[in-house]
Predict the structure.
Amino acid sequence: MNRVYRLSLISSAILGLLAIGMLIGAKGDATGPFVIGSLVCLALGGRIVPTLKQMSFTLWVFAAVALGMYYPQYFQQIGDFKFTSLIVPLIQLIMFSMGTEMSLKDFEGVIKMPKAVIIGLISHFTIMPLVAVVLANGLGFPPEIAAGVILIGSVPSGVTSNVLAFIAKANMPLSVTIAAISTLVAPVMTPFLMKILAGQYVEIDFVKMMLHVVEIILVPIALGLIINKLIRKGVKWLQTIMPIISMTGVLMMLVVIVSSGRDSLLAIGPLLFLSSMIHHSIGYLLGYWSGRLMGLDEKSCRTISLEVGMQNGGLASGIALQMGKIATVGLASAISVPWMTISGSLLANWWRNKEVKDA
């Protein structure tokens, strides 16, 4: 098997060099197969390189974005069927997968470390929304794009944050607790924040959005919890297959979102990428120091940093779709998901190699 992985790495290098050569030769439109092939081969072959193995999902995210950018026509519509109709079911599948990984024990953290949980939740639902408002106004985005920036700042923390907390040698029980509770309160918090912060940009129906969030996240999570309680212990393969299904769902959703907003991304993408970089970087920084200033230990500070900076981009896309504005309001999440995955992975791996002094 190692031989196959080595061949994949060699293929990745060759395809990457060919893509660069074509770009230099002003044949950028024809680089699609080479760029996508290089990323896929790198993700596969990287399994034998520890650093690349940790970045495997990030590489798949890059490949998904490239696929949507180069070949949007294949992921927009077939006959009367629009691929955007898959977004909500994919998010529900991801949330169901999250539910199968959860149990009532995940909420014991509220009792064991209430201070850290409260700090994490308050930081999450204040820092990211307020920074989003400053960016939306300061960078002069069109109204619906600005609403999308605020939306990505108003959703709960992403499920990826739990994985990154493990890599970063952070406080895993705290990470799971904050992610779970922020998700459960999202049906109220996300519409509320959007109403007061983004209402000037787009019309926000609080009750309608609240019901959509319940439908998208709470119902599938509840079903996942039931499955976990009733049959998961007796079905070993479920523990293996659900994370794979979840990651595949994220990648499929990303391809559809990027494809649907490809033209707008080409026009405003660089500015949105700058906004995303600033947004999530400030989230990591202020999240960490909100814990430090309140006297939390290093592991808990790392956890809060990741829980604040990592957002549920899938939920933001689902809400944008329900609003009928996936190609505008949904663009911020299409940019944020790759950047969050990259930046969060880099931060987690940096912390992984940094001693926890107060452990």
